[in-house]
Amino acid sequence: MIGIINYNMGNLASVTNALAKLEINAEVQSDPEKISQYDKLILPGVGAFGDAMEHLKKMGMDEAINAFAKSGKNILGICLGMQLLFDESEEFGAHKGLGLIPGKIVKFDEKRFPHRLKVPHMGWNEVFVKDAPLFQGLPKDFYLYFVHSYHALCEEQYTIGKCTYGYEFSAAVQRENILGLQPHPEKSHKSGLQILKNFTTL
Questions:
Q1: Which of 73, 83, 129, 133 is the most buried (most CB within 10 A)?
Q2: At 44, which CATH number?
Q3: pTM of the prediction?
Q4: How far is Cα 27 from Cα 171, in angstroms, rounded to an integer?
């Protein structure tokens, strides 16, 4: 059973519907006391980093997620959910994250863009991935759907997928049982559904 964390900051319907298409048992959960009962967790998210962490802390969900991570069971963060896995973010000030993957969330540096691009990065973009279980059955490069203004800065060892928008950035990350995707697999048709299916079989 997959637990989808509800902390009032995510588009839960699209993730739930994607898993339903795959005939995967999933349940939206907002009670931190019940988190440990799941085999895997998905942490979705849309909005600002600071607000999201505030919601998680008020609910006690931050501690529940960390305990789940320490148990060795798999967690997948999507979009803002991926960013929350990191140590900190500079979005609208300095904010501490869950600290499950070393690194920082930063805004796109438009000064580094070779030509005029808009922020947020929105739409389909090519992703180049490493040989990782999350991408089993997929080619080394394929397209996924993005909507974000901030991205992760982390060591190469934690990056399992990259994308270029103005410059190269980490689009998929993994540290042992903790995984994250900046793009939205639930909105990325066949490739995205394959990723979600792979996650459920890890």
A1: 83
A2: 3.40.50.880
A3: 0.96
A4: 26
Tokens 């490739």 map to which residue?
A: 191
What's the pLDDT tens digit per position in 123-157?
A: 999 999 999 999 999 999 999 999 999 999 999 99
Find out whether 181 and 85 touch, Cβ atoms under 8 Å.
no
Would you say 42 and 74 are in contact if contact means Cβ atoms under 8 Å apart? no
* Tens-place pLDDT, residues 168-198: 999 999 999 999 999 999 999 999 999 999 9
Q: Which of 55, 95, 121, 184 is catalytic?
A: 184
27 is catalytic: no
Domain interval for residue 63: 2-200
Q: Which of 79, 95, 121, 163 is catalytic?
A: 79
Among 91, 148, 163, 186, which one carries the catalytic annotation? 186
Q: In angstroms, how far is CA 43 from the centroid of its own chain? A: 7
> Given the DSSP bridges, would you call strands 121-129 and 101-107 parallel, antiparallel or unpaired?
unpaired
From the list 38, 55, 33, the residue with the least C-alpha distance to 4 is 38
Known active-site residue 121: no
What is the average pLDDT score of the chain?
96
Cα 66 from Cα 68, distance rounded (Å): 5
Q: Quote the number of domains for the chain.
A: 1
**Is 79 a known active-site residue?**
yes
**Tokens (6 digits) for 132:** 């990782």
